[in-house]
Amino acid sequence: MQRLLTLDLNLLVALAILLEEGSVTGAARRLGITQSAVSHKLKRLREQLDDPLLVPGTRGLVPTERALALAQPLRDALEQLAATVAGDQPFDPATASHEFVLSGADLFEFVGLPQVLEFVAAEAPKLSLIVISRQLDVFDRMERGEIHVAFGPRFPERAGLRQLKLFDEPFVVIGRAEHPLLRRKLSLDAYLRAEHLLISPQGRPGGFVDDALARLGKSRRVAVQVGHFATAPFLVARSDLLLTAPVSLAREAAKHLALRQRPVPLELPPAPALMAWHERFDREPAHRWFRTALHRHIVDRSRC
Q1: What is the reported pTM?
Q2: By C-alpha distance, which of 59, 10, 60 is closest to 38?
Q3: Residue 140 near residue 208 (C-beta atoms within 8 A)
Q4: Of 52, 63, 137, 174, which one is least surrounded by beta carbons within 10 A?
């Protein structure tokens, strides 16, 4: 690197073209400069690299052994440099082998990830995915480039954080198929008499439901609190607990368990499902394609 500080990199471009053309005239035409200017560049290259590089031959200039050794590495390096500084490059999902790190609660793994795997297998089969649980330092990790896309109901307002709403997620009440309170329309009184299971990924009590009840001056009994979405339907399927959950969780769990669902018997606004990323990835072609594909497939499925 220290040697490059004293070397005019434009001279390397001239050398690459001289090696391809084998003549000062051809190189001048390609570079758009005079022959004397090309000769001057060649003179400086000879001085800086301490080698004649190109010597007269019967059919033009002939490269020295040093020049031949430089030719292919120089061409590769210049092509890579050109691609690096060119900005947006074409992205072909069918052949790309990028790795994406996603972050979210296990609700995403249980409900959203199967949808992602479907379109990745069909459109970008060589992509690799790493899914990690959502953590408190998710923004810092996105800023460092360690996480590409995060999912959740809310994100803090931070400089550099980009957010996009995927859809609004309504809630339903689910319980085992033979739960006595779910045999008919669930009233608020019956709902309050029941024992409830609360999903709290951060381990804190309360949430959307308890906030809504508090506005009515009411409360419910949370008998069990867990940290994961995916286990909750299995617990209510084997108990008399009721679970107030996103409808996507109820829909997916019903494919595996004997459950019954009812509307929530109070006014409960839907929770937004958001996708977030750091602005450092805004213009990166692979990331932009992946975000667009995520939005298209997840939003389409949410409407089904």
Answers
A1: 0.69
A2: 10
A3: no
A4: 137
Classify strands 60-63 and 54-57 as parallel, antiparallel or unpaired: antiparallel
User: Rounded to an integer, what distance in angstroms lies between the CA atom of residue 98 and that of residue 286?
Assistant: 8
Of 80, 50, 77, which is closest to residue 66 (Cα–Cα)?
50
- Break the chain into its structural domains and give their ranges: 3-85, 99-165+279-302, 171-269
**Is the fold of 3-85 the same as that of 171-269?**
no
Domain 171-269 has CATH 3.40.190.10: yes
Query: What pLDDT score does 168 carry?
Result: 92
Give residue 8's pLDDT.
Answer: 73
The answer regarding whether domain 3-85 maps to CATH 1.10.1660.10 reads no
**SS in 3 state form for 41-71?**
HHHHHHHHHCCCCEEEECCEEEECHHHHHHH
Decide if domain 99-165+279-302 falls under CATH 3.40.190.10.
yes
More confident site: 1 or 270: 270
